[in-house]
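Tutorial sheet, problem 5. The two components below are modelled jointly, 358 residues in total.
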Amino acid sequence: MTKLEELLQNVRDEIGADLVESDIVGLDGFSVAGLSTDPNLNREAVSARFALAMKLALTVSEKLNLGELQDNLVTADNYITLCRSLGDGSYFWILTVKKEATLGMVRLTMNDYAPRLWEAIPR
Amino acid sequence: MSLQGSLKDIAVADLIQHHCVDKKTVWVQIQRADKRAEVFISEGNVVHAVLDQLQGEEVIYEILGWDEGTFYIEGDVLPPLITVHRNWTALLLEGARRLDEQKLLSTYEEKSGMAKMDEILKQMAQEIDGFEAAEVIGMDGLSIAQYSRAKVNLELIAAQLTLLIKLLDTAVNKSTGGILEDNLLTTQSHYVMMRYLPGKQHYLAVIADHRNANLGNLRLVTGVYLERLSASIPK
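Model answer (structure tokens):
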């Protein structure tokens, strides 16, 4: 198990049963490490589509002079998806949780792990 | 003689005028969705009209506003009743006056609806800590109401955010099978909250200062105002 996978496993243990999917994705839309608890969830599709959305979110924050993009939180009727930029913004972390998850706790966990995940990405 | 056609090619007023000027006796049937009107013209005068339970002049005033549907005209059919007593020119003039009045009224309602939405946004702004700007934006990217306390390019916001919400909508639907409810963009200095209004034809976008805003308050207050904003959109 790589360091990156180990950290994602730790996140899974901390968030518990509410975690649905967690992926480290490059801006090219490819996941470099990840896991999912929902067998029906297409991780490749999630990574690719949310990479597009994050790119657009980056453009939006730049054009509107809103400062550096930190994260994007998408609430749907079934899941909540958080996308957080890592390090210099060349990678981001997608974390999907069930709607019942405690959002504040999930964001705290992300704050805690984001720098460590960035460090663990092989370069 | 019989003739049929579409109201897209000829207006109801023109149909009536044409047969009255020519002093014709005809039975005109007009179908619009599930409604069917009948007008009897006898020797160049409208003498009877019926639409569901309605009879007489009011039927003519109602159908003059129809711009979609089909018509069928049969010649030399005598009216079963006489329910219209005004001559055809007076009928058409009164109909035109009523249509103008309706148009004026709907323009007024539209304008007052917009003003009401601006007012609701202003009220909402008072309840959001760190509020900077809010807009109600259609899915065509055009803003229909806005209120701002900061110097922001609201037109640019509307266009950019609409692109983003559309992309996210597709991303959510195609990757997790869910339905997008809202999106919160967090940047170093701002929160940008986007929430669909009921019906998903418009969404509310709120920009707040990251340092002064409270995320829970932002989500709660915007949620409370969605229904009110939706109800005030001019139909």
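Marking note: Chain A touches chain B through 32 residues (CB under 8 Å). Full credit if you identified this.
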